[in-house]
Amino acid sequence: MNPQGDDVELATTSGQAADALPATDGSGQAWLQRYTTSVMQTFGTPQRVLVRGEGCHVWDADGNKYLDLLGGIATNALGHAHPLLVAAVTAQLTTLGHVSNFFATAPQIALAERLLEVSRAPEGSAVFFANSGAEANEAAFKMARRTGRTKVISTLGAFHGRTMGALALTAKEAYRAPFEPLPGGVEFVPYGDLGALGRAVDGATAAVFLEPLQGENGVVPAPEGYLAAARRITAEHGALLVLDEVQTGIGRTGEWFAHHNPRHEGVVPDVMTLAKGLGGGIPVGAVVAFGPRNAALLGAGQHGTTFGGNPVASAAGLAVLHAIERDALLDNVNAVGAHLRTAIEALGHPLVEGVRGEGLLLGVALTEPVAGHVVTAALERGFIVNAARPDTVRLAPPLVLTTAQADTFVAALPEILNGATP
Ligand SMILES: *Cc1c(COP(=O)(O)O)cnc(C)c1O
Q1: Residue nearest to atom 6 of ligand 1 (CA)
Q2: Quick one: which atom of ligand 1 is closest to the CA of 214?
Q3: pLDDT above 70: percentage of residues in the chain
Q4: Between 394 and 3, whose confidence is greater?
Q5: Torsion sign, CA atoms 398, 129, 238, 172
Q6: Tell me: the pLDDT tens digits for 294-347?
Q7: Same domain membership, residue 249 and residue 126
Q8: Residue 205 host element (H or E)
Q9: Going by CA atoms, what residue is nearest to atom 11 of ligand 1?
Q10: Which of 66, 133, 183, 184 is the most exposed place for a label (fewest CB within 10 A)?
């Protein structure tokens, strides 16, 4: 018998949780005041203080309800408080919450197997678990170094994360400058420019890092043939092709992974990095190495993490993958995504130039750089969206968004856009 059995039982009662957690009845203003004197100002002033979520909706501390069309930045794949995710995480945490990597657990192994399946990874492939997108890319960067080469190609506009290695792969000057020198050897080429990529990659190149669609850069899909050509070029020179699917993976674009889209001609990467949607809101990152040669790049003792692959995080990943399959969410993403795009373009609003993107990762391109004002106007009317760049509003809602929910946004959009004045 487990002598702690009674304590485990007690800890699950809401009474105990209430003693540990803050009351959420304070006003948003009062909470923000406390925020500014306790949390680092890294993110500026938050737009609202959120206290609760259910499905595609969240509520703020003042009781206002919002349709969440950002989904924690492409992360809340199943929306908020999804019963399956809650049940899987709760069941795992009450059974076994964490062990070190001196031990294996069933959820970790099962999630690795499921990821290899949905990745269509060949025999000999393997997964490394991390806790975030930056960490997944950090591991991929280390894999690149293990080829014995140090030159790495990344693209302008790319976003790969904020740790020193991931930042070295990210071109944005404002992010990099305060932290130089960064790990060296990274060169940048314009995204989508095949000629530039062909000229940059040579026999000294360890890896090419690419997003199949640049999310942070304002939802910019790779041009036709780009990924397939990148595959040919890297293979020709013995360089790794690393696809960063942190934002685009796990059903976001209507395929399990964005590079599965038929327009990428069946491209198979050497390495793929994942995070965001994989845990449905629980921090999970993963690196999928395709084939035995790539799977062996990080050998025993060459990389590590305390939390990576922990059973609770793995249970979350398994729940997300299960729900996507069980509830045919890829079909939903394609249907609702196409509907949203068509309906927004059909508004014919003078501020809307068009809609870019795939599945439920959409960028509403504006004719003027007023995306920040659109975000504010949307928030005031009960919708959460995001300015991926000054002229682009990003939509990355939960994969469970319904057409009816999408339509409430489309109906409000003209007024939102009209209200988006500097
Ligand atoms: C968000 C993102 C990252 C970084 O992920 P974190 O979990 O924030 O570290 C890396 N690459 C892409 C493409 C992303 O969208």
Answers
A1: 133
A2: 13
A3: 96
A4: 394
A5: positive
A6: 999 999 999 999 999 999 999 999 999 999 999 999 999 999 999 999 999 999
A7: yes
A8: strand 205-210
A9: 160
A10: 184
How remote is the CA of residue 258 from the centroid of ligand 1, in Å?
15
Which residue minimizes the CA distance to atom 5 of ligand 1? 133
CA of 284 relative to ligand 1 center, distance in Å: 11
Please indicate, yes or no, whether residues 308 and 208 belong to a single structural domain of this protein.
Answer: yes
Domain count, the chain: 2
- Both 58 and 135 in one domain: the answer is no
The CA 160 to ligand 1 mean position distance, Å, reads 5
| Domain extent at residue 122 | 88-326
Q: What pLDDT band is residue 232 in, cutting at 50, 70 and 90?
A: very high
Same domain, 47 and 57: yes
Query: What band does 3 get if pLDDT is binned at 50, 70 and 90?
Result: very low
**Pocket-testing residue among 129, 154, 242, 247, ligand 1, by greatest number of atoms within 8 A of Cβ:** 247
SS (H, E, C) 48-99: CCEEEEEECEEEECCCCEEEECCHHHHCCCCCECCHHHHHHHHHHHHHCCCC
Of 326, 354, 386, which one is at a domain's C-terminal end?
Answer: 326
Task: Mark whether 218 and 352 lie in a shared domain.
Answer: no
Q: What is the CATH number of the domain that holds 120?
A: 3.40.640.10
What is the Å distance from ligand 1's center to 102 Cα? 28
Regarding whether 121 and 66 lie in a shared domain, the answer is no
Query: Which of 216, 245, 272, 389, when mutated, tests ligand 1's pocket best, judged by the most ligand atoms within 8 Å of its CB?
Result: 216
Question: Closest by alpha carbon to 323, among 250, 246, 405, 395?
Answer: 250
Position 148 in a domain: yes
Measured from the Cα of 211, ligand 1's closest atom is 13
Domain stop point among 295, 326, 357: 326
Residues 32 and 135 occupy one common structural domain: no
Q: Would you state the structure tokens that stand for residue 298, as one six-digit string?
A: 């990080």
Who lines ligand 1 at CB under 6 A?
132-134, 137, 159-161, 211, 215-216, 244, 246-247, 275-276
Ligand 1 centre distance from Cα of residue 331 (Å):
25
Residue 2 within a domain: no
Residue 5 has pLDDT above 50, yes or no: no
pLDDT tens, 128-153? 999 999 999 999 999 999 999 999 99
Same structural domain for residues 98 and 179? yes
Q: Which residue has the tokens 């070295």?
A: 168
Helix axes 371-380, 403-418, angle to 10 degrees: 120
Is the pLDDT reported for residue 14 higher than 70? Answer: no
**Reported confidence tier of residue 259, pLDDT bands at 50, 70, 90:** very high
